[in-house]
Amino acid sequence: MTTNILRKSIYVKATKEQVWAYLTDPDKLAIWFHKPKEPLAEGATYAMFGTTSGDKLMWGNVISARPYDYLEYTFTITPMGDAVSTVKWTLQDAVHGTRLSLEHVGLPQAAEAFGLTLSLDKGWDDHLGRMRASLHETD
């Protein structure tokens, strides 16, 4: 059996501190992803809500938050049922900006869950594109 792991990396013309804000600050998260009620902080639980619908879209626990370098949290959405996956973000200095890497692990493995993996894969592409566009608007 193989493991479905989503990996993405983007380069942005922004400092690690700016990118970190986009990963943890509710107002910045609302620009490109979903909005939590509180900033993401190590040891905290979180829920993120649709910016227009207000519906609870995802939830979990922040496992690790090392400012400007690494963020890890559990990730659950309704289509996953009781399954819990993990999202890991790594920020690295790059010439004139930051390399942001995503690793989404622990995705459901059943054949009928592959559609969910495809949806999450496309979703991360869309979300990261919105983050990049927003960060580059301020350039």
Task: Kindly describe this structure.
There is one protein chain. The protein has 139 residues and is an alpha+beta fold. The protein is built from three helices and seven strands. The chain has helices at residues 16-24, 26-32, 114-137; strands spanning 6-12, 35-36, 45-49, 56-66, 70-75, 85-94, 97-105. It has a seven-stranded antiparallel β-sheet with strand order 1-7-6-5-4-3-2. A hairpin with a 3-residue loop joins strand 4 (56-66) and strand 5 (70-75). The chain is globular, with a radius of gyration of 15 Å.
Short description, anyone?
This protein has 139 residues and is α+β, with helices and mostly antiparallel strands.
Topology:
Elements: E1 6-12, H1 16-24, H2 26-32, E2 35-36, E3 45-49, E4 56-66, E5 70-75, E6 85-94, E7 97-105, H3 114-137
Antiparallel strand pairs: 1-7, 2-3, 3-4, 4-5, 5-6, 6-7
Query: What is the count of helical runs?
Result: 3
Question: Which shape, going by the Cα principal axes?
Answer: globular
How helix-rich are the residues, as a percent range? Answer: 25-40%
Query: What strand line-up does the widest sheet have?
Result: 1-7-6-5-4-3-2
- Radius of gyration of CA atoms, rounded to a whole number: 15 Å
Mean pLDDT, all residues: 94
From the N-terminal CA to the C-terminal CA, the straight-line distance is 45 Å
Main sheet attributes: strand count, strand direction, barrel closure:
7 strands, antiparallel
Beta content comes to: 35-45%
What class would the helix/strand composition place it in? alpha+beta
The ordered string of helix (H) and strand (E) elements is EHHEEEEEEH
- Assembly state here? single chain
